[in-house]
Design a protein that fits this description.
The structure holds two protein chains of two kinds. Chain A is an alpha/beta fold. Chain A has 20 helices and 34 strands. Chain B is mainly alpha-helical. The chains are: A alpha/beta, B mainly alpha.
Chain lengths: 708, 193
């Protein structure tokens, strides 16, 4: 009946009609539910089965002729066909034509994973004049031909099973209509390193209100710790601080520093995010004004810092410079706002006195929680260095003159703890021979290090080599490497330049480092694999290009947003090649290194990609949700309310209807998980597209081997 | 001419074709080495950590990395006929540090096994076999050791086959089962007459 209506509509108009249909969805669904619950089919099912060869991906591993012959014998099958590439335009045309010619009521495509081509074949089904949800996919590639490549007989049998099961469901499928929900015109970006800042700037430039959340006291991230950037040798701060200032200035960006994500609820278009503003102990000028303190609030003058009696290592300077318990990390922080480290503050109150009339300091400050509503979210949680002391052979944290790459950045940086003079931590002397250990903890399959390439260590080590040649006359850098991976634009040219400047390259991974206890110099032991000679070179200092790993809080944050991660902790993109910024959670996107190691150009590109992707649903204004929600069959519902507490998404409620208490579903909140449907003692809950009769039919089809 | 004696031969050697040809590789060798050593011998990426860790390398021409390369490429003859194969002290430093989690020492041991099947083995290794066969020890106890043991309050002989010679028979049974002693005797006789 609904089908007849649709077949008469022209193909080009179907799209429009669907959105118009949104309103009467509920009524229609209820009608279907009732019909199916009464187990009367108004029309005999006619299922078309379309078998894809996928070139030789499928056809090479099983006997498709036998599969096709079998499919013709399956009950309810009205038509069977095969094609080399079902997803191609001619392949889709086969489906389209067959629906018309054979008056099909359901479509089964036996091909790849629904994750890859379910949308394609839904569209083809729709273009053939059927409701797109009358399509079912039988996965005979990922779950069959690829894993049973050398078992022709077994894979053929398994394909027959998969098709029989899919047909059983397809025969009972019903028309469903996606629900459109409005999208909140705001986005949240988690992490304000260069990726998060770039994403926030792009979103705000596109007119979208953006909440930028950073766990540290200042924005800027890792890039603000770097001295120079390869291969152009721009000063990192010089190119980053303008962006930081822009972020601070942009009215559409609301900045939350010293904050973290506390809770996330909702779905694409309507996320409710709770931000935890960690107690900072210092109020901004705006906050002071709101409290009625005239001319008050922190202006970054630093008067509080001098009297503070507590001295702690400055994390921004990799612990190589002191800071007070009330601190800013470095002079260019955004926002220019002091922060109290509660773990070390003794609450002596000297800072409060020094601050005086500005009344910016509150030693009794508590964490605050702010709730914001956003349409989309971008995670840009970045990285930290792998604790390289775990590789004991290189002596980090054991030998004073073995440092890591970020410590080198601070030591060579003019605003760093030594004013830009690279010195040996043991005696303050200027080194004349500096060893660089590449792949320190990367490309390591021992289970201690990381199996992946950290991607930017080769290039920053080349840059470090350049910096010491430039700053210390007569100082020679020795780079111990396995491969120099200079893959980016102008990177190989940079390698050429550094070798020309006098850096020595030794192809051998460092086996171990020993310290001369008297001089604190280091013996670097390796094999010059090109000379085929074991070597022992005495270095004044060694820099370990440590592997990188996801930042500490990444795992907690990703779970709140429902994003998966790979085995090594990097957040998982929807598709590594074709959807690198998206995730499998609609409306949540990834930017920068949290998805995998990236240098600055790639990070910025990824951030701009994520911002663009995250702005699409917002600019569209509404998104379609899969109509897989639960519905209540009022006549069967006893109003016991047991399902209400079971629902993980708080989508269910008891209501009065026609003098009875029955359950009602808030469709936009329902994720179709099936918890309520599986539990309901009266069988009153109908799960759209995964209804009990449909699933039972699938199980029967499998267990009975096709015999009814 | 006495003055050029040896030169033409040395020059000939230098001018030999040393290219690697497909025929030089035996893929079965790679598989055998992997099976016997029970380590991923084919996964070496030639970083040199093994040779850099090797206590033998700075004192000899032994380069474990080269043997790993030969394992990867299946260079059976080159690996098994290289006398360096027998210079590994089996200290396992390379195995501790290999970033690919390979156990290079076990690769060397597997190559030694394969070499022995071709009667390639230094005589001193065979004499160790003979010593084990007759005493149960590769390095049997001697009077100097006995005196030293006595001095620090230990029994003159350790509680091994030295103290319980009746168990030597068991060791001999094992060695005979694998025909190790017979082969050792045969090869030693061939070499030393």
């Amino acid at each position: 009946m609904a089908e007849k209506k649709k077949t008469t509509t022209k193909k080009t108009e179907t799209k429009k009609q669907d959105t118009k249909k949104v309103a009467p969805v509920k009524q229609e669904v209820k009608k279907q539910a009732k019909a199916a619950a009464g187990s009367t089919t108004e029309q005999k099912a006619r299922v078309g089965v379309f078998i894809c060869h996928c070139g030789t991906n499928i056809a090479g591993s099983m006997d498709l002729t036998a599969v096709e012959a079998y499919a013709k014998t399956v009950p309810n099958v009205a038509y069977v066909d095969n094609y080399k590439y079902m997803c191609s335009m001619p392949g889709q045309a086969v489906i389209n034509k067959a629906i018309h010619d054979n008056k099909l009521t359901g479509v089964v495509v036996a091909a790849c994973s629904p994750r890859l081509h379910e949308p394609t074949f839904r569209t083809a089904t729709k273009e053939g004049g059927l409701n797109p949800f009358r399509f079912e996919m039988a996965n005979i590639r990922e779950q069959n031909s690829w894993v049973h490549m050398h078992d022709q007989e077994g894979s053929t049998d398994k394909a027959k099973d998969a098709i029989r099961i899919a047909v059983a469901k397809a025969a009972l499928l019903q028309d469903l209509f996606p629900k459109a929900v409005p999208v909140e015109k705001a986005a949240i970006v988690v992490g304000a390193g260069v990726a998060g800042m770039q994403a926030a700037l792009d979103l705000s430039a596109a007119g979208i209100k953006t909440y930028l959340v950073e766990s540290d006291a200042s924005i800027g991230g890792r890039m603000s710790q770097l001295d120079k950037t390869f291969p152009t040798l721009d000063c990192s701060q010089c190119i980053l601080t303008p962006k930081m200032v822009d972020v601070g200035r942009e009215p559409l960006i609301e900045l939350f520093t010293w904050s973290e994500i506390h809770d996330v609820e909702g779905y694409i278009g309507n996320f409710d995010v709770t931000i935890k503003k960690k107690a900072r102990g210092v109020i901004t000028m705006a906050e002071a004004e709101a409290k009625g303190i005239v001319g008050g609030g922190c202006n970054g003058c630093g008067d509080c810092e001098a009297p503070c009696p507590v001295i702690k290592p400055n994390e921004f300077e990799m612990g190589m410079k002191p800071r007070k318990a009330i601190f800013i990390n470095h002079p260019q922080v955004v926002p220019l706002l002091y922060t109290i480290d509660w773990d070390s503050c003794v609450k002596c109150g000297l800072c409060v006195t020094a601050c005086g009339e500005k009344k910016a300091i509150d030693l009794e400050a508590k964490d605050e929680f702010v709730k914001v509503k956003v349409g989309t979210a971008i995670l840009a949680t970045g990285y930290e260095l792998f604790p390289i002391e775990k590789k004991t052979e290189w002596g980090y944290k054991k030998f004073e003159n073995v440092i890591n790459g970020l410590e080198f950045e601070r030591l060579i940086c003019a605003s760093g703890p030594t004013g830009g003079h690279l010195v040996r931590p043991s005696d303050g002397q200027t080194p004349k021979k500096v060893g660089f250990v590449l792949c320190a903890g990367s490309r390591d399959n021992t289970g201690i290090g990381k199996p992946y390439c950290s991607r930017f260590c080769c290039m920053y080590s080349l840059k470090h080599a350049h910096q010491i040649i430039e700053k210390i006359p007569g100082c020679t850098p020795y780079l111990f490497y396995m491969d120099i991976r200079s893959f980016g634009k102008a990177y190989e040219e940079f390698y050429y330049r550094i070798q020309d400047e006098g850096a020595k390259f030794i192809r051998g991974r460092v086996a171990n480092i020993l310290e001369d206890p008297k001089t604190k110099s280091l013996h670097v032991m390796t094999d010059d694999t090109l000379l085929n000679r074991p070597i022992d070179l005495e270095m004044d200092m060694v820099v370990l290009a440590s592997a990188v790993q996801p930042s500490a809080d990444t795992n907690r944050t990703r779970k709140l947003f429902g994003v998966s991660c790979s085995m090594d902790g990097w957040l998982l993109e929807a598709h590594p090649k074709l959807n690198p910024c998206g995730t499998t959670t609609a409306g949540v996107f990834l930017a920068g290194v949290c998805q995998g190691p990236k240098d600055i150009p790639d990070t910025v590109a990824s951030a701009e990609g994520a911002a663009s992707a995250a702005s699409i649903p917002i600019h569209k204004g509404e998104v379609e949700l899969e109509p897989y929600f639960a519905t209540c069959i009022d006549e069967k519902c006893a109003g016991c309310g047991m399902c209400v507490n079971l629902c993980p998404y708080s989508a269910l409620a008891l209501v009065e209807k026609d003098g009875r208490t029955v359950m009602e579903v808030t469709e936009a909140k329902c994720k179709g998980c099936g918890t309520c449907g599986g539990f309901c003692p009266g069988g009153a809950i109908w799960m759209n597209h995964f209804a009990t009769p449909q699933i039972v039919a699938q199980i029967d089809a499998f267990l009975l081997g096709g015999e009814q | 001419m006495a003055r050029t004696k040896g030169y033409p031969a040395a020059l000939d050697k230098k001018l030999q074709d040393t290219k690697l040809y497909l025929d030089d590789s035996n893929p079965e060798f790679t598989k055998n080495v992997k099976a016997i050593s029970r380590t991923n011998a084919h996964m070496c990426y030639q970083c040199g950590t093994c040779t850099g860790s090797c206590p033998s390398a700075p004192r000899s021409s032994y380069r474990i990395r080269l043997f790993m390369r030969r394992a990867v490429l299946g260079l059976e003859n080159e690996a098994l006929t290289d006398p360096d194969l027998w210079l590994c002290t089996t200290c396992y430093s390379c195995a501790d540090r290999c970033p690919r989690d390979i156990i290079p020492t076990d690769v060397i041991m597997s190559m030694r096994n394969l070499a022995f099947k071709r009667d390639i083995i230094p005589v001193n290794f065979l004499k160790t076999v003979q010593a084990i066969y007759s005493s149960g020890h590769g390095v049997p106890n001697n009077d100097v050791n006995r005196a030293a043991r006595e001095k620090i309050g230990l029994s003159r002989d350790p509680p091994t086959t030295h103290m319980f010679p009746e168990y030597i028979k068991g060791i001999q049974k094992i060695l005979d089962h694998y025909k190790l002693k017979a082969n050792a005797d045969r090869i030693v006789k061939e070499r030393e007459g």
